[in-house]
Structure formats: C-alpha cells, structure tokens
Amino acid sequence: MSLVNVKCPNCGASIQLDDSRAEGFCSYCGSKVKLEEAKKLTIQGTVKVDSSDELANLYQIARRAKDSDNSENAAKYYEMILIKDPNSWEANFYTVYFKAMSCKIGEIYNEANNVNNCVKPVLELIKANVKDPSEQQKAVCEVADRTLQLAQMLYNGALNHFNQFKSVQGQANEISNDLYSCGKIAYTLGDEIYANFDSALYKDRITKAWSQGVECFRNASGAYLMAQGNILEPQKQIAIQYCSKMKELDPNVTVPAVNSGCMVLLAIVMSPFIAALGWLLFG
User: Which string of DSSP letters, residue by residue, matches 4-28?
Assistant: First the structure.
C-alpha cells in the first residue's frame, strides 16, 4: 500500500490516502474523498476551494460534535475554525469550553481560570459582530447557560474531592483555590453581561449568575474555614456585595442566604472536637 498526502476538499485537513484506491475517507471530518479530486485540489499544500464553503463545513462538523457532547472532536474543529475565523465568538468560546469539559481534578484551577478569562472577550465579540438582535440574544444566552453549567460541573468535582479527602493535609488549601476559581466564573459572567448588554433584557441570567457565585461561596465555606489564612471572611463580604447587586437590579429577586451554610460547615469542621467532648462526658 502506498500512501499519498493530500488535503481534504471538505474541511481542508491534511490527510493520507491509499494511492491504489479511488476513494478514501477523511480521518478528521469523516467525509468520503475521491483521490483524483483531492490530488487536483492539492497544489503545493493548499486547497483550491471556496473559503466560505470550507468554513461552513467546519462549523457544521464542529456543531455536530458539540451537540453530541463529543468534546475531543468539538475542540479540534473549533480550533480549526479559530485559525480561519479569529473573530468567531463561537470558536473562541468552545475551544476553551470543551478543553475545560474534559479536564482532570488537578487541572480544575487552571481550566476554570481559562474559562473565566474568556468570558469578557467572547461577549465583546458577540456585541461587536452579531448585529441581529434575536441572534445576539441567542448567542448571549447560549454562552451564559453553557458557562454556568460548566462552572457548576467543575465546582462539583472540586467540592466532591474536598469532601472525600479533606482530612488529608493540604487538601483544604488546594481545593479552596479550585472552588474560588469556579465561583468566580459565575460572578464574572454576570458582571460582563451587565456591562455589555441591556441589563433589563438579561436580568434573569445576570441574577442567576451572581446567585450561583454566592451559592458556590456558601457551599465552599467549610474548605475556606479549614484553609490557611483568613479567606472565609473576604469571600463572605464579596458574596454579600453580590446579594446587594442582585437586589438593586431586581428588588423582587430571592437572594441566597450567605450565612446559613457557614454554620453547618463550621459544625462539620468542629465535629471531631464535639465527638471527643461527648466521649469525655458520656464515655
């Protein structure tokens, strides 16, 4: 079998086909490729196809992978789109999103920060490039919903890890950073939608984002309490500020309770001492 290097006419990827066969398949997009057609289109490493058609094909493949939750393929094709269309909000967002979706526990902090850092430029790209009001609203809502779901998934992974290994020395310090970075995503999302778009139009999503950030603080209080340094009180003050911002934006909104979770988690942290006291009194 003799292999020849060609470019896929559909997605533009560099592939190898069997020179003894008339047809093959692209290993990237899966489309059927006629060898002679690919050879004719491949001239000194470039493909003579209409760039708009090529980009449309890549979007179709990337979205198909996105809708089927195929993180690996979605990330790959959105990266290809990003090279050809650097101002695409969709490619800028989903290259980061799908990389974070498949991260391991030890990678949560970095990936959460990457997601947090991409929120502002992605929303600014939507504002600048998506002029149709209905399409703009659809894009903002898609980014908001996906971002909050991802932030919650990363947060749950970090919190579960903490609950399982909190007795191990140093875990509270490490996981506190993860939990903080995940909660920060929600705060940032609400802030940037508020700053870039009509707050009245997106009131529900802004308050939902800020509320999720407060809930993340509340449920992480145990880790913050056990971690070195005074990080519980500063985070509490931030949560209180966002509760006030929610009320300013929507006086009728129900804001999360900032303190209730703290007392429960304080009891959990103190439980070894309570158990020891009970043994002394009643043992």
Answer: EEEE-TTT--EEEEETTSSEEE-TT
